[in-house]
Amino acid sequence: MTDSAPHRWGPPIHPECFEHGAVDEQLTMLVWRFPEPPLVISSAPLGGGIGLRHWVINAQVPTSYSRRDPETHLAELAFEHGLTGPGVGMLTAVDLRTVWRDEDDGAQVDVSVGITRPTWAAAPDDPLDPPAPGPGTINIVGIVPERLSRAAMVNAVMTVTEAKAQALWDAGVPATGTASDAVCIACPDEGIAHSFGGPRSPWGARLARAVYRAVVAGCRDGGAR
User: Fold this and answer.
1) Is 142 within 8 Å of 185 (Cβ atoms)?
2) 20 to 30 Å CA-CA from 61: which of 26, 78, 138, 220?
3) How far apart are CA 181 and CA 141, in angstroms?
């Protein structure tokens, strides 16, 4: 299910942690910088879709956050921290000094876990009970050191999401996620590409196991409820 002699990145990529916003807010932000612009697939408000990205940020916002232009806000934060070129930006109300990292044979994930507002993906609309505001976001940044085809990247997003739902169930959270979850997966943009990212493919399986363990750990440690 894989091609031979793929290009492979070196050591794991660890995010840097910064503070931002007003001094009394004590908001945190994680920044991943890559040795070379990777190919990224993401559902984030800034830099979503598929393409080359230079960096990824996961920024904490207050629980009262009400801006309707999150992509502009994230671009401002990137500029303030000297980040250039296209990147990915996601938001959460979780304190990012506590993030769950896991690795599985070269695949690495960093997951911020907020489960204040869990929901079922196929829940019916209820106009008499609209979603309540508040924190509740699971953001996943996954990195694989070898190239995936674009189809495999889409498949990997499915696999990671399935692993998140499995973890929530096993952790006793009656939900498939929250309404504001985001995911980002990055890989090198050179070398022979792996054609599959499903749960039984090498990199899909590794990402899934890492995400599962990280989400379970985050839920059992409180999960920013």
Assistant:
1) yes
2) 220
3) 11
Contact between residue 6 and residue 194 where contact means Cβ atoms under 8 Å apart = yes
Per-residue confidence of the chain (225 residues) as pLDDT tens digits? 444 556 678 788 999 999 998 888 889 999 999 989 999 999 999 999 999 999 999 999 998 888 889 999 999 999 999 999 999 999 999 999 999 999 999 999 999 999 988 999 998 887 666 655 556 799 999 999 999 999 999 999 999 999 999 999 999 999 999 999 999 999 999 999 999 999 999 999 999 999 999 999 999 986 654
What tokens were used for 190? 């050179």
Q: Is 77 exposed, middle or buried (0-12, 13-18, 19+ CB in 10 A)?
A: buried
Structure tokens, 33: 């910088």
Run of H or E including 5: none
Longest dimension (CA), the chain: 57
CB–CB of 170/126 below 8 Å?
Answer: no
Give domain limits for the chain.
16-123+133-220
Strands 182-187 and 39-42: antiparallel
Say what the pTM is.
0.92
Which residue do the tokens 């299910």 mark? Answer: 1
